[in-house]
Structures are given as structure tokens and as C-alpha cells.
Batch of 4 targets.
Target 1
Amino acid sequence: MTKATTVNEIKLRQLDEALCACCSVPTAHAAWNKELAIAFSGGLDSRFLAFAARMFGYSVTLLHVHGPHVSPHESAFARTWADRHNLPFKRLFLNPLDDARIAANDELRCYFCKKRLFDELLRLSAPLPLCDGTHASDTSAYRPGRKALRELGIYSPLEMAGFQKDDIRRIGADIGLDIPWQKARPCLLTRFPYGICADVPLLNALAGAEENMAKLMESCSRDAGIPHGGEPDFRLRIQTVTPFGADVELHVREQRKSFTQSESFSKKCRHLMNSIPLLRLQAIRHMGNLSGYFDRSRRS
């Protein structure tokens, strides 16, 4: 038995204990039952949690929120993954912009959005305990939504078991989870600077532009011989909004520089963006860390 295997087994046992604790809280349904619901985006963290929970013998129901803040492509992927793994899947439509506190897009947007979203999911999941994919690495970033989860009593088994993002990728690969290298794709509202309000047409334009950009990145990555090129490694971020649309920047991870700094790639990007209504590409920027661009002066 290798050292890595031993560490993985210990971490999995800790996760099983955390899941057991989530299901051990007495409810009207049962004093204890191996049934739970998971807020499921289709991203790596919620997929890993669902995959591991079922491996441990839990009955898992996946709850997916869709709306203008979520790419239709990502919602379709979430549904396909659930079907492929024979896991019950329920969809809930929610437009967060219907809530003026979220639409205002200030620094507490994520708190109000999580509060609204998980309040609805709690009703949908009852009487099962509701879990999410928050993990220990999230505690080091600006995550106002975590406060809403605590207030609502949402369980975060990965955080409870001390799982870091690297643990999820490593152990996911070890236990057979598909796409353990999957990149994070936060909701489309995170593409807007604080103080600039989103609307549904702009969100739809961003979703379409990012889906097309992902295809372009996949093609260029494959041509450059970069593995896992199909996994998006970029963000399109709003810089300014006018009555006629929005100026955006393409933010690309440094590791993609081998092809994204070329004039050929720049021309392809501009040609693509010229076909997208409402959005105008202003610049292509490379950065080491794509996450939390508008939160870098803040800490949770």
C-alpha cells in the first residue's frame, strides 16, 4: 500500500464520517437514514461529493438551479452527468435578478444570492438533509455566500472532512470520477464588476460567447498539443456597460500563452466576438489565477 493510497483512504473515511453526521440529525423523515440531497451545479466539487456519497452507499438526490446566471451548456452537462450515473435529478428555475438586493450587484451579492437560492433548495429537498460542495480551500478566499450557508444550516461535508481542492482532484481520479481536472466555472454574475448591474440579455450574450470561446480554446489547445484543452481555462469579464452593450476582456490562464498570445489567436477571438451581439472585446490578458478577479482586495 502506497503512502498516497493510505492518505486517500483516511480522507475518504473522514468524508464518510462527515456524511454520516449530516444524516444523523433527527428530522421528521427519520432519526437516521442514508439519504441526502446535494445542491448540484455539475462542477467538480458537487460531482465528487455525489460520486463519493453513492460509493459509500448513500441514496443521493441532485438538485440543480438553472436560470439566466447559469450557462445552458453547464445545466445540460449537469443533467447528462446525473443521467449517466443514474442519480435522481431535480431542476429549479430561479432568476436571481428578480431580487433587488442581488440585482444591485454590490459586495454582498453572493450572500443574498446564496440565501435566496438555498432557501428555495431547502424547500425542494425536504425532508432530506441538504449538502453542498463547499470545501476547505474555500475558507481562504472571499466567499460571502458561506455566511448564508451557515445561517441556513446547509451541510458542507467536504469542508467538515478537511478536503482541499487538490484532495478532490487526486482522490477523485483514484476512485474513478470522470474529469477530475475539471476547471471551476462560477456563475455568470461573477463576470461583472461590483456596482455594474447585469441584465438577462447581457447574461445570455455572455453564456453564448463563453460557449463559443470554449470551442475555440479547445481547437487551439488541441493544435498546440496541450492536454485537456476542452476544459475552459478563461473568463470573459465585463469592464463597462453602455446603452448599446458592454466592453469585455478575455482573461486567460498563463499556461495557455503558448498559443493565446499569438496574432492568429487574437484575430480568431475578435472575429468570434464580432458575431456576438452586445459584447465588444477590448483586450486579452493573461494571469496566473483566474478566480476571484473582482474580489482580490477582499478576504472572507
Target 2
Amino acid sequence: PFSRAPGAPRRKTPDGDDLMGGVQQDPTGVMGGDDGVGQPPPQDLKNPWTLEEDALLAKLVEEHGLGKWTMVAKQLPGRMPKQCRARYVGKVDPTLRRDKWTDEEDKRIVAAQHRLGNRFADIAKLLPGRSESIVSHRWHLVLQWRRDDMLQAMGEHDYDFLGDVAKDAPKKERREWSLEEDALLVKLVEEMGEGNWPTIAQHFEGRQPKRCRDRYLNKLDPSLTSTAWTEDEDRKIVAAQSRLGNRWQEMSKRLQGRSERAVKERWFSVLQHKADEVLHTLTASDFDFLLPSVSLAHGGPRRKTPD
């Protein structure tokens, strides 16, 4: 489950139910796919909600109001207050939207998460029609991989919508890479080669070896390409992930011009949701690019080829 952001307060509803400042992984939440349309993930398979329960839940919330989850749960046999709340805010609430995510909404999620941490309940209040669970899923599956690029393009005015919500939240200091630093980093890698990140980092004030490595491999490497993803690349990512797990560095080595971050983002924002469908279309030869030696990731799916 997702944990609360450090320092985020625990909140209670008027009838004493404890609600986290963050959000747990919600089986009744709504995931944002690549096309931006919210799609409901699998519901509670042990005890799925019925249409009659949904109708009663909506009626009870209308009668008692939001926050009275203990009172509501008493009239829904077998349901806990937390389940009632999660079902309502993630699925039944009539104000929820199912349309595509907008660029402005994505920008607000990134800006809010930057200032508030994973306080998705608070972030959702800033996005009319979006529940905390769908905001959480949008962040974890799509936006966290684009965070750095989006934050770099933001100005202080892009945080104005937060108002008093972020008044007491500590502001995270970020020092963006300058053009001079980028030029020096490229020059040092040319001179010393990739892999000497501790030595390279010594030439920068306040830059860790990992930051230097990530900056170069994901942004500055002249071999990187920004062209549209091809079907062949997508099939290779799915095939590699089924054998390697989430070893993005190993995958990027087999996809010319694609960085670790680009491969990771492509997987989580597009391919993860249709991986099973793509795997069923692959043949033994589609895994040849992984040779000569690729060990199966621990716990990763093992798929038998037709032969």
C-alpha cells in the first residue's frame, strides 16, 4: 500500500473514522490508462459490490452526508466503514468524472504532489470530479515518471491554485541543471567514459553520482531518440519485461536510442495494461533479441513458447 507523506496528519471523520492523509491502494479505485480515460481495476473478488448495495450506499450518503461512514456501514451488512468510504469516493459518487485527463489536471497533480507529498485526499479536493484513488493511480502509473520534466517547465504561478492547502507544507528546494552543467557533464563523460560517475560528480557542487548518471543517460546522451514508439519496440519491452522483470537498464540496452526512464515510463503508462494481450501474440523468435544469456527475473512470469 501507499504510505502517508512524512508529516502528513492523520484525519478523522466526524463520526470517528480514521482516514489517512495519503491513500492506500484502493481496490475500488480508478486507474488512468495511456489514453487518459479512467478505467476501473478489478473489484474485491472475494465480496464484490452489487448494484443494490451501490444504490443503497448512494442513498445512505445522501441521507447522512459524507463522513458518517460508521453509520452508513451499519446499514450495509458485511461492509466496514472504510470499505463504504472507498467504494463511494472511488466509484459511486455522482460527481466523479470519467472523461480524459487534461494537461492542466496533470500539471496540478504534479505541482501539488511536489508541495504536499502523497496527500492524495487533499490533492483530489483541488481537482473537481476526481477521487483520491484515481488521482493516486494517475500519479503512480503515469505522472511520477514525467515529474522532473514537468517541474522544470513550471513557474511559481503554477502553484497558486494550492492556496492555503500548501501554506504549512515545507517547500522542496530544487536546483535545476544549468546549460553550463549539462555541457560540462557531456564533456566529462566523453573524457572519462560512462560508469565513472563518482569521479565525474566531484566536478559538480551538490551533485551526487546518481544524479549525474541519470541526467546523462536520460537527457544528454547523444544517442537518445525522441521519435514515436514503434510497435516492434513495444513488443520488445513486453517480451523483455516478462523475462527480466523491471530491470529497465538491461531493457534500454536492447532498445537503441531509448533511455531507462523512457522505457520505464512506456511500460507503466502504456504497456502494463495490455501486456497479457501482447504476450499471447509473441512467438519464440520474438525473444531472440534477449540472447545470448538472459536469466528469468525472480518471481517473474514464465511463458512457454509454442515449441
Target 3
Amino acid sequence: MTPYKNILAAVGEFPQDDDVLMRAAEIALIHKASLTVLHVIEFPEDFELATPEVVRLQQEAKREAREMIKAAIDRAAPDVEKADIFVEIGASAAALIKHCETFAPDLIVVRSHQRQSILAKLIGSTADRVIRGASAPVLIVKRPVKEPYQRALLATDGREGGAEALNYLANLLPDAALHIMQVVTILPPLKQSLISTGVGQAAIDSHRAALIRRAKENLKKLANGVTGRAVTTRIATGGPGNALTNATRSPKTDLITVGPGRSSLLRRALIGSVTQQVIRDAACDVLVWRPWKGEE
């Protein structure tokens, strides 16, 4: 099993971030990993000068934030015996990136819809530095926590990395039901090209059928590669972003796992458009998976 040693919960406000603590604690307890909580206090730029009054205000803010986090842990994660709390001053995204570079967490847990903070920057210009540069998957909590994860969905496009992602998910959530979904789509330029050459709808249908056959073979191979776990599969057609977000609307799906969505050739300099759509529109929690440290 992949070793999980440190789960990082990046928090901003309470009680809104109680769910982040609950999910981070859930996974930390499963794997007997340490739990780290990071909170960043954003002071206005005018406060950067280290005058005695500014230093006093910052220290007071850090003390109050630490007490707030301790109370939240007692409330939302009472089974956690010990959590390491870090309170930093600065910009949220930059502080999170620096922390990840220093401590290399195995999973980062954040909340969706934080006020122009961590998640907003995760899918912005600074954000992908966390997803690719931190060498850790990012779990985005979008639903209130009512129970441990029961059913996890893995989105695959049939390319390399599906088996690693599925094994990661199976190890991360050993008690959850696993489901794999592959979306078959004919890209608009190809479809238009087939139409313009006059091959007709029959050729398009034949090409789609071939894609579906390959998808079935891929899903069967992936499902059979997980030892001791039942894995269900599904093929959908249409636009990948819409098909995947529609799948998250099932009350039975607690979590969808997607990749960063860019090839390793580009070093994931950007987050793929499908992944961005899933992060934005999914009705359940989203795990942005990436290969384990050093395996890219």
C-alpha cells in the first residue's frame, strides 16, 4: 500500500472549513498518518513594514487563529489525538506552495468556494504550481460531510496512468466502492473533417463504435487489475466535461477523481479544461490525482 504519512488541511474560515478538517482527519486516521493544519492570515500590503504595532497585531492574529483552529479540531475531528498547526502571514497561495515544498504532504485538502483564496488560486495562474509543483494530490471538499466516503468515481480517458490512478484511489479509500468511467467522444474537428469528406454518418457511427470497443477493453483491464476489490465500470458518450459533472450528481457518488489533464511533456504547466470544468461544476468532492512523488 502507498505510504501516507502526512495529510495537510488548508483552512481559512470556520465553521465553513469544518468539513475540510473532517475529511482530512478521516483519511489521516485510516492510514495512521499525521494531520497538519495550515492557516494563512492575509494582511494588507500596507502592513508589510515590521513596525512594533504591526508585529503586535500579527502576533495577536496568529494567537487567535491558533485557538480557533484548536477549537475547530476538537469540534470537527475529535478522534485526532494530535495535529500540527501552522499559522502563517502572507498570501494564501504562496504560503501553501512554500509549505508544500518544505514539508511535502501526501495529500492536500481544501474547501471549494473559499473567498478568493486557496482554491481560487489553485485553478488560476498560481494554482497549478500547487497541483504539479507540490507533488501531491489535491482533495477539494464541496459537500457537507455526513459520513465517510462510500463510493468513489475515477474518470479515465484511456491513456496511460489509469491503472496508477485507480490503485491510488483504492489505497486511499480502502472501504469505498470503486467505479470507473470513460467518456467516448469524437472531437469536433475530426467529426467535421469526416463530414466534409463526404464519408457520411455511417463512418462516424463506425468510428464511435470502435472507440467504445476500445474503452470497454480498457475498463475491463483496469477493473481486473485491482486485487480483492469489486470495481464497476461505465462508458458515456458526449463531451467529457458535461458527462463527468452529470455523473457527480448521483447521490451515490461521494468523490470523483480526475487527473491534471495535461501531458507530462508540458509538465502540467496548465490544468486541463475538462479538469477545470469538473472542479468548478461537480456536485461532489473532487480529487485531482497526480503520480506519486518521483514517478512522473
Target 4
Amino acid sequence: MENIPNNTILLIINPLAGGTEKDTELQIIKNYIENKNYNFAFYQGTGKQEYDKTQIIEYYQKYKPQKIIIAGGDGTVKFVIETLFDEDIIFGILPMGSANGLAKDLDLPNDLEACLEIALQDNFKMVDSILINGMKSFHLSDLGLNAELVKKYHQSKIHGKLGYFLQMFPTLLENQKPFHALISTEDTQIDTYTKVILIANSSKYGTGVIVNPVGKVDDDIFEIVIFRNLDVLLILKILFGYLPLEDNTIKIIKTKKASIQTDIPISFQIDGEFCGEVQQLDIKMETQKIKIATPR
């Protein structure tokens, strides 16, 4: 078998993350890593999940990398970490997607070389993992209007931040009726009508908008944020960074385990990936955490 140096950095890149090709960024990353005297290897995703999953596992087993760097948005980050979830390794993130919410929550900069510097050093956070109907979430998942936005974005031919923007207001301003939900935790039960239910391991959407001001990625709990109403005024407040917690249409519940039942099938997304329509969610914290490189 080929003798691969154990100082290898394995880059896994989504070449179309953010709606643009990444040839220039790939060369910058390669030069930076090699100039730091690491062996550089990379895998470019194809968008075919089963194939990519198999290839990522094979690359990991072949190179036995010292670190894995993920270049892409929240969806790419989730896919790679989930694929290698049981491996004891530090993941670095280069935020290059349409939505980079986890990177924002970890205070990662926008500058590519600054993120590379962080990815290659040894400081990291032990980030929580949430299991939702058997699927892992490391960032934000939700039922309702935002999941509708994610669905329309994936159906659109225009990707990147422009794609999200073009779908945002038509989706949010649709006159959809609230849906009925029964939310049960170990401590409480809430029977309500709502437009969005957020299952949050962190505080910000990929756009940087704060939707869960008490959220932390490493506190061993998650929050359920209930938006009973989303009128134009509330949407504008949230978009401009003000979440009015005194508004009785918003409620935040902290918990380690919960279930959600709805009266009708509702659009559902996990970490920026549309997962269809559901009427039942079973949610719990996982005991295992993941290591993600963060600034000192």
C-alpha cells in the first residue's frame, strides 16, 4: 500500500457552493497548506450523495489525515461531518456557501486565509449534535415558512446568495395560515398554532440573522423557538437584527429531548437541506460531540 505522510490535510470542497466555481480558491488553499509543510489532498464533491459519501470515506481511509477542511456552506458541512461522524478528528470550515450559519456562530472570519490559519491550528470547540428523526443536525432546523424557502431555493435554477434573496420575500410574505402543533418536552407541553418552529443548536441563520439569542453550539441542550406569527413588521425586525423576545408570539424552550406533532404535513429542513414534509419529529441530544476548529 502507498505510504502516505501522516501530516496530510484533506480538503473536501463543494465546487459549486455559493453558486460559483471554486478553481481560484482551490489553488489558494493548496498553496497555503503546502507552504505550511503539510501534504495536501482534496476531494471535489459531485452532488451525488451516495457516491460522494463512499469516496469521502475512501479518501479518509487512504490518507488518514491530520485534519479535514470543509469548503462549502452549511449543507456541505453537515454532509461531511455526518459521513465521518465516528472519526476522532478536528474539522476546519471554510465558509463558501450560500448559507454559512455554523461558521458565523463559531466566529469564523470571511477571509479565506484567516480561516485556513484557524483550521490548521489546534484550538477547537466540542460542538453538540442533535438527532431529529434519525438525522443529525449541527446548526438549525425548522418546520414551516423557512423550510418552504429552502425548498424553493433548491428548486430554483439560481443558486448562491442571490438565489436565496430572490426566494425570500415571496415565500415569507405568502399568506399561509398557521399550522397546529403539539410540542412535548420532559418538562412541558405546548399546544399552539404557529408559522415556524425552529430546532436550534446555535443562534444565527446562514444570513447572519439572529433567531435564537440564547443559543450556544456547545452547551449540551437545544432550543425550540416558536414563532406563532410572522407578519411583515416582525420579519423586518428579525432581518435587521432585533428579535423582540417580549413579543408573546415568540417563545423559546430549552431542552434535551422533545417531540413535535402537527395537524398537517409541514415542510421541514435540516441545516439548509430540505427534507420533505413531516407531521412528527422526535428530537434528542446525542452524547457524542464533534471537534470544529475555532479562533483562539
